[in-house]
Amino acid sequence: MTEFPGHHAWRRSSLAASLALALTACAVGPDFKPPDAPQATAADHPYTPAALPAQTASAPGAGGAAQRFAAGDDIPALWWQLYRSEALDQLIRSALEHSPTLAAAQAALRQAQESYNADAGNKRFPAVTGQLGATRERVSEASSGVPGGSVFSLYSASVDVSYTIDAWGATRRELEGLQAAVDYQRYQVEAAYLSLTANLVTTAIQEASLRAQLQATRDVLDAEAQSLAVVEKQASLGAVARSVVIAQRTQLAQTRATLPGLEKSLAQTRHQLAVYAGRLPSEAGLPEFGLESLQLPQDLPVSLPSSLVRQRPDIRASEALLHEASAQVGVATANLYPQITLSGSVGAQSLKADKLFSSGSAAWSLGAGLLQPIFNGGALQAQKRGAVAAFDEARAQYQQTVLNAFLNVANTLRALDLDADALRAQAETEALARESLDLVAHQYKLGAVSYLSLLDSQRTYQQARVGLVQAQAARYADTAALFQALGGGWWNRAALVDISSATGAASATARP
Length: 512
Fold this sequence. Notes:
This protein is of the alpha+beta class. It has a single domain, classed as Outer membrane efflux proteins (OEP) (Up-down Bundle). The protein is 58% helix and 12% strand. The chain has eleven helices and six strands. It has helices at residues 7-22, 86-98, 100-124, 141-144, 170-236, 242-276, 305-311, 313-334, 379-445, 451-485, 500-503, and strands at residues 68-71, 127-139, 150-165, 299-302, 339-350, 362-371. It has a four-stranded antiparallel beta sheet with strand order 2-3-5-6. It has a two-stranded parallel ribbon with strand order 1-4. Helix 5 runs antiparallel to helix 10 (451-485) and helix 6 runs parallel beside helix 10 (451-485). The protein starts with 6 loop residues before the first helix and ends in a 9-residue tail after the last helix.
């Protein structure tokens, strides 16, 4: 086998590089450890000052079923399917495929992974470059001893190797920080996914609530229109004063005046629902939602605090930023120590191109360099102190994120408990208002009560109907808020982005 000129020197250079790789056994700076989960003060009420009941109260009618709090139960990945709405499920599946917000988060994740791949390739392995060159040179008479100087051509070919020994772990800490940045973007994808699905569910519930409020208002309008017809007939016969007719018309007009506001809110809600689904507001085919098309989930999982900090994407993202800041402390610390660089080159030089690879043209070099900062005005120490301060900032932000998460869960749990009480009270109010209106209307026909009493009963019933619808919708919406507050079950499904298909890197989603 024909050997390249300088083959043995090349082997010595490779051996030196291998030795350099073996020397990388130390890493200065803190080794990152995920913060401990908050300890619950009481096992039976880890989120609220007082224990929650085993289940909420129940109420008659739609959305009135009791809901059971199941401590420690896991959350299904497709939690919105618990509402038993095929239209909602299909809309969310379509939105996940067409949402620009989710696509942007996925692209940011791929970008972070590629940045990691690029730096890892540059810093983990020796840099090897090849070059081929030709120069035309003139050497002076004084240096060459040749009258008039010497003019010649020089041809060269070489393979150069250089490697900086990671003796203090600066490279490893830097790559550790870049991997933490990848993890941050991964949890940002999960946060975008959770936010999108929760927004779709709550917006669909808002649409259902507005439709029910519109229907309730129209029903009241029909009843008031019938009352107006009766009053006008009575006025034509002289049985009642003209003021009674005006009062009924005023009541009808006031009720009718509430319709445009509800219709505007419904239209805007529909437009928002379309945008969440990745569609233009003008596009057709968006399903319509009513409260009767949704079923209230009856089993409500309540994750333990130790699980919550591993399930919430915002907490995991904040933890990744803390990890990145910890790695930067290690980088700043390593920069205080000497940097050792090994280099080698093997190739050939010749005055004639056709003799470049002939025997006797071999050329090689081996070198090592040591760089030790001596004086830089305290810049490196200041950079380390700055990195430590950034870590302290990231730790405080992580703690605040955890506090906000626990606040979110506590508020939602208490809201669900009180929503049930509010719905039961509102259902009783609506039933009594209906009964009162029927009784007063009958009494008015008999002349036993004044028309003002009838108007008051109509107003009370209208408010009770709308209040009942709002109370029903609140239970549906706060149930969705609980699933969102607990993390949404992302750990029970496959990764959203298969990074391996784009970069060749591992794509497994981190589990809580």
